[in-house]
């Protein structure tokens, strides 16, 4: 039995060493191919302060496609860091902001608002367990503790915390050698041909519950308010923006009027400027799919609207 115990210990030790080596190799490789993950951007951001950090879901991401963030910096003379992530709701974005503020500084925060992100845990708690995000998120002890805190305080799945700490998704990433870019970036120069069926499919995907639940909306409005309060405590200037979408798409968003009323009241109470650009670019030539701006759309939006917001003091 003694010999068997020693053999088991030796086998376990070898297994742990092999796993540790795989974890280390996966972590190093992630730094070589990393790009769009918000935590990768934070880890590689350097020490200089920023003028603006951008948070939100995928509607905000084209602002950083194909070097366009550098164009905005050159045109405005300001340093900008885009930390948006696909499907990221206010709870996940608060998590990102808190981690950023642990070691970095910014004068302002632009939050790109989307109603879908306030209507389901799919875009909030479940984002923490998304393997596509976890496998590109650098390991940091402080971030591990933050994951655990969100597990205890916000009900994030324990498996998400375990996955992050053990690096399971990172080690088993079949796309480990591919550059970390959202698939939408490859379509940045595409011009979309409108499709009613595609619009309906996209709406159904974004809004799993066809009728928004007021209790769910209230929960994520509270998370949003906490995010704003965190930014304001740190002395950040907070600005809320809605990105353009085609009018035909906007008209199908369930509960949009009620959402606008609720968020407007919250933002007025917190004295936060709100710029609703939803219906400023209706033509299909400005989009690469049902609701994301292509290069022409981003250029038009920046020059016609966002540049003035970024340059306000």
What is the topology, as strand order, of the major beta sheet?
2-1-3-4-5
CATH class: Alpha Beta
- Class of secondary structure makeup: alpha/beta
The proportion of strand residues reads: 5-15%
Strand/helix succession: HHEHEHEHHHHHHEHHEH
Number of individual domains: 1
Stretches where pLDDT falls below 50 for ≥5 residues?
none
What is the CATH H-level superfamily? Answer: SGNH hydrolase
Number of helices: 13
CA gyration radius, whole angstroms: 21 Å
Largest sheet: 5 strands, parallel
Q: What is the name of the CATH architecture?
A: 3-Layer(aba) Sandwich
Report the span from N to C terminus.
74 Å
Number of DSSP E strands = 5
Q: In CATH terms, what is the fold-level topology?
A: Rossmann fold
- The best one-word shape is globular
List the helices and strands and how they pair.
Blueprint: H1 2-33, H2 38-43, E1 50-55, H3 68-76, E2 80-82, H4 90-103, E3 106-112, H5 131-134, H6 141-154, H7 158-166, H8 168-171, H9 196-206, H10 214-233, E4 237-242, H11 247-250, H12 256-269, E5 274-276, H13 295-311
Parallel strand pairs: 1-2, 1-3, 3-4, 4-5
How would you describe the overall organization of this protein?
The chain has one domain (35-124, 181-311): 3-Layer(aba) Sandwich (Rossmann fold). The chain is α/β, with parallel strands linked by helices and 313 residues long. Strand 1, helix 3 and strand 2 (80-82) form a beta-alpha-beta unit. The chain has helices spanning 2-33, 38-43, 68-76, 90-103, 131-134, 141-154, 158-166, 168-171, 196-206, 214-233, 247-250, 256-269, 295-311, and strands spanning 50-55, 80-82, 106-112, 237-242, 274-276. Helix 4 runs parallel beside helix 10 (214-233). The longest helix is centred in the N-terminal third of the chain and has 32 residues, at 2-33.
């Amino acid at each position: 039995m003694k010999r068997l115990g020693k053999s088991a210990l030796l086998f376990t030790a070898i297994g742990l060493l092999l796993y540790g080596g795989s974890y280390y190799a996966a972590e190093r490789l992630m730094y070589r191919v990393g790009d769009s993950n918000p935590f990768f951007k934070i880890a590689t951001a350097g020490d200089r302060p920023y003028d603006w950090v951008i948070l939100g879901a995928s509607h905000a991401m084209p602002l950083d496609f194909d070097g366009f963030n550098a164009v905005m910096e050159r045109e405005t003379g300001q340093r900008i860091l885009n930390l948006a992530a696909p499907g990221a709701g206010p709870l996940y974005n608060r998590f990102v902001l808190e981690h950023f503020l642990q070691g970095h500084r910014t004068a302002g925060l632009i939050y790109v608002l989307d109603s879908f992100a306030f209507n389901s845990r799919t875009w909030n708690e479940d984002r923490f367990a998304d393997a596509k995000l976890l496998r590109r998120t650098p390991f940091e002890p402080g971030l591990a503790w933050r994951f655990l805190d969100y597990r205890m305080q916000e009900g994030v799945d324990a498996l998400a915390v375990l996955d992050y700490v053990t690096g399971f998704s990172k080690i088993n990433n079949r796309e480990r050698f591919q550059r970390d870019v959202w698939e939408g970036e490859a379509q940045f120069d595409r011009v979309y041909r409108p499709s009613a069926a595609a619009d309906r499919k996209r709406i159904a995907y974004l809004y799993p519950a066809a009728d928004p639940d007021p209790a769910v909306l209230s929960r994520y409005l509270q998370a949003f308010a906490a995010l704003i309060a965190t930014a304001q405590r740190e002395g950040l200037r907070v600005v809320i923006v809605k990105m353009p979408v085609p009018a035909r798409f906007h008209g199908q968003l369930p509960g949009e009027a009620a959402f606008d009323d609720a968020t407007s009241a919250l933002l007025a109470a917190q004295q936060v400027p709100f710029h609703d650009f939803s219906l400023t670019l209706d033509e299909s030539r400005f989009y690469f799919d049902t609701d994301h701006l292509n290069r022409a759309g981003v250029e038009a939006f920046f020059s016609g609207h966002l540049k003035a917001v970024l340059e306000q003091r």
